[in-house]
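Quick question about two entries, pasted in order.
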Amino acid sequence: MTGATRTLVLDAGQTNIKIRHLGDGSHAEWAAPGIRTDRPLLPQLTAVVEGAIADGRTFERLAFGVSGLESGAAESRRLLEATERHGVRSVHIAHDSVTAFLGALGTGRGAVVAAGTGVVTLAVGRTAVARIDGWGHLIGDAGSGFWIGRAALDAVMRAHDGRGEATALTSVVQADFPDLERAYLELQSDAGKVGRIAAYARAVAAAAAEGDAVAGGILANAGRELALSALAGLRRTGEADAAAPQVRGLGGVFGAERLAAAFTAEVLAALPNADVAIGESHPLDGAQLLPEVDAKSALASRVAVARVPVAATG
């Protein structure tokens, strides 16, 4: 970070919110419950700011990467209005795909796939930026933790019905739902069902590592879906024609070896010269870089900034 501006940095995802406070020579990090994208974002973000203030932290700048962000310009203005009385003088806010990209490739070019409970891909070229997927669990998020967990539940119910292959995932799900035929009723009524279903991605990875064919197939399909997003982003931004297109896969789902291998193989099958790496990103570092994005960067249009007018700072 340039200068000594005290800053509150957020990487606000659906699983949790990672928070960093940069004070006068100090550095602290902690976490809070994740963002609910089916609820207004402003009250949730304001609550994090007020919680930090209640803990005695002071700051003049907010730098937030936020899952589910729609109108960054509107949110930055409203967030500044809500926090100006606490001494905040500028707000820099972007979709978490932007901060994931910055955390992985900085101000470079390429495609970054950030996959946890949900998934979003951001590709950046010389003049163009393309967002791929990140459309939520109902109509998108292909290859995400939720997508994998949902596929696991589907496989278990297919096996239960006699429509699909037997799988070790059945015992995992049955430990939570002894009567499998009532699982859908409980899940439908659970306000936290997205995170609950996504949590099964860990069981899929474990079962695949132990040789379960159904689990391995789910992970391979997820890896191919994520690669499809990366390739689409590279093509839309012109980076598919680069000498060595940069591709990064980040987030918890890439910890599954079968998924990461399928992802890498699919990208390289289409672009043999691609520079593909897994797990190289620090989203909080990316959010911290938001105030430093150059106005000439293709990413500048994706960062919303609101500032207190100079005359009002006294």
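Here is the second entry:
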Amino acid sequence: MEKDEQYRDHLLIRSAAELYAIGADRRDKALWRQVLAEDCVIEGLGFAVEGREANLHSIDALGRMFRATVHRVHQVVATIDGDRAMGETYSTADHLLKEKDELLVWSIRYQDEWRREAAGWQFARRRLIVDWEETRAVARVGAA
């Protein structure tokens, strides 16, 4: 693979991670449809959800559990082999709790597998690892 092509693929993989984060925060299923493979699996401690359509319900769950969320993508490291890639995405996620003015903050590592599809690079598998969490008071909650 040429350097320019590899660089482009890394940018597209990072873009998939960023669109996933934006989709979660905006509760935008169309964004997730762009970046989740039809047979994707998203898993974490105590859960595994298989298939794109089943995973879209996670967006509904975010809306039921939190007033708002902000996901930040920090670094994405990927090893690309043809139309497949494996790697890790570091992220921080702020979750504004429903019942009180507090943030639940997660330090996240996703262990990712991507696949190049006709629509671009998509997640074939994401494994959510929360390295730690903390709760912070929110001094002021503005209108969304």
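Reply: Residues 3-26 form the longest helix (24 residues). The beta strands are 36-44, 47-50, 66-81, 84-97, 102-117, 120-137. Hope that helps.
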